[in-house]
Amino acid sequence: MEVLVYLVPLALSLGFVGLLGFLWSLKSGQYDDLDGAAWRAITDDEPDEPSAPVQIVQMDQRICGSGRQRGAGEY
Amino acid sequence: MQADIDFSHFLKRAGAGLVQLDLAVEGINCAGCMAKIERNLSSIPDVTSARVNFTENRLALEWKVGGLDPALFVKRLAELGYRAYPFQRDNAETLEAERAQSLLRRLGVAAFAAMNVMMLSIPVWSGNVSDMLPEQRDFFHWLSALIVLPAAAYCAQPFFSSAFAALRARGANMDVPISIGILLALATSVIETIGHAEHAYFDAAIMLIAFLLAGRYLDQNMRRRTRAFASNLAALKAETAAKFISSTEIRTVPVAAIKPGDIVLVRPGECCTVDGNVIEGYSEVDQSLVTGETLPAIAAPGSAVFAGTLVRSGTLRVRAATASDGTLLAEISRLLDHALQARSRYLRLAERASRLYAPIVHTTAFLTMLGWLAFGATFHDSVVTAIAVLIITCPCALGLAIPAVQTVASGALFRSGVLLNAGDAIERIAEVDRVIFDKTGTLTLPELDVANLAAIPDDVIKLAGRLALSSRHPIAAAVVRAAGASEPLADIEEEPGRGVHGCYEGAPVRLGHPSFCGADSLAHEILCRDPEASVVAFSHGDARHVFAIQQRIRPDAAEVVAGLARLGIMVEIVSGDREPAVWRAAETLGIIKWRANVSPMDKVARIEGLTGQGYKVLMVGDGLNDAPALAAAYASMSPVTATHMSQAVADAVFLGQRLGPVITAVRGSRRALRLMRQNLWLAVVYNVLAVPIAIAGLVTPLIAAAAMSGSSILVMLNALRARRSEAA
Predict the structure, then answer these.
(1) Containing domain of residue A57, as a range?
(2) How far apart are alpha carbons B320 and B323 in whole angstroms?
(3) Please, which residues have CB within 8 angstroms of residue B453's CB and are 6 or more apart in sequence?
(4) Domain boundary residue among B552, B580, B595?
(5) Is the complex ipTM more than 0.85?
(6) Taking CB atoms and an 8 Å limit, are B34 and A15 in contact across chains?
(7) What is the pLDDT of residues B199-256, one digit of tens each?
(8) Which chain B residues are Cβ-neighbours of A61 within 8 angstroms?
(9) Contacts A1 to B, Cβ<8 Å
(10) What is the total count of domains within chain B?
């Protein structure tokens, strides 16, 4: 049963680390926009090469399904 | 237009040479929109950050001081296809956001503490039936105390402070039994631990706190979301005013930047966006959105004008006023204060439940203790059993029963176009048995429409529409909408207060006042037939036509009135407009009871009269004159086009052209109230089952924890049934 001397503090400190992680994520505003965060996960990263933007524009148009894409040429 | 607006009012300094601006953006539907906006705006030189908040439909921008004009961002977003406008978080919204943040932090702490304590409790529970040494059990109990006591002291503060406030006001709310339960559970557990006892209730106490905080957070979050949505809507109205920055020079600024005492210029065809007094100029004004009166009035120096007043013929200089100077405004504010005080006395279902609940539970616990003493148990065992009764009945399910339904139901209403302003709106709207409608702007649409389209040839309508594009007058805008015009005619001149004229296919064209087009007799004929209409005349060469312009009744108003009748709700019109106009609307909609020419005070009197007879009245209105009635009624709703003051006091705001959301709100609220009652009964049934076990002294911490989470989950699942947004 001496093992408790290590295991209990270890378990509690892991829990504490988890709590600190939660508090940090809360403070850095990660819970401010939960719907947006869900979408951001599936977007592509910043386009580096000139060829990438074209695909992104197409994706935008497909998802939005609206004709409001006048700014597409801005990329 | 927007490029001229001075947005400096909305800018915030962010230190280190940076400026911040928040924009409300319309039309962000998907990840693509977010990426497009962020990439596009970040590519502007000097912009250091552009971040879309998808939940709130907002964009936060940050850039280096100097160089950039904020109007550029609005323009750039318009090019991308999004309507955007700067906005300022009001105090209430900031406060709600802070509250939600703090509840979430407490919830996190409570949840982590509960998880860790559970890890310590499970060995104790299983050890109690096997071979755990008493020393080991004490060690685990002390560890639990070490985690739970500080966590509870921090997390349960919202309940303690609310209970304390209620007790100090010599009342009781749900938080009083909650606080007593938590404190007793903790105190017993500490004493039991000191006495090397088998059972401690640390896990039950912290779990209770975590469940209750979850309920509170859900409630708060929903309210915050609707508030953010409503303030976006207000911002996107993009109301501006032409403010005098010196005695001769004007600048277009957002309305939020106007302070009392500022002087603004209102030109013909414009809507006044501030409350104030005329200091110079004469004009015919249309106050229908403010007072319900559809006939124009005359504004002269000294007369009061209100936000929402349409200036028709002349230019006015208006000094923005506070409520203390405007007579109608001051009167309405006074009535409002009075009515709101009366409303705050409404007792919510949860409070009524807790008034019954607390004495019953506390008496049961006390009797349990006396009973065990009478049966010869020791004082210590009797007290512990009594406290076990309190712990097992602690209103965990009761605390979740109502917020869970409220959150789910207000989410469903939100999706069908009803935004709830007040926390107890659902309960009150569910109980109404009378609906009073205002006419102008509520039963009718706030925009004007051409009423006699059928009598005018199509090509004339098309041409008139193209001509009307050159005028900013709202009546001309109605002609534009009717014609669906988009190509303005060239070389058109506007004569303020009279109309527009020009040349088309070699013949002069005119649109405006009947005398301006030589169509007086035609206009007279129309006005004789329909005295409620406004007229605008059109001439092309020798041909003359007159458009009758009117506020149309909302497309589904008759259905809604009939639907309310089927629900057993009587409908009535109480309007500030003249008798013939109200009578006509009542007749069209099949409403038997109506009153016309009613002053704001008499509207309140009518509602109080009905209340005196035992009716629960839902007032639906939009004008400034409706605000006191909205506050005095048992429950109230406003269309989103209503004046600021009315929207602020209404329990719910509905979106769109249809009146349908009123009936949706009543149905949805009734269903939600039914579920709340069911949930309360579920909690009662649970108590009836659990309390005998506790009285018998058989409750172990394991049973307490299982019962508590079981009942909470049951109540949550039942609440999810409020999700159906509209019953068939």
Answers:
(1) 3-65
(2) 10
(3) B461, B482
(4) B552
(5) no
(6) no
(7) 888 988 898 899 889 888 887 887 787 778 877 877 777 778 888 888 888 888 888 7
(8) 32
(9) 136
(10) 4
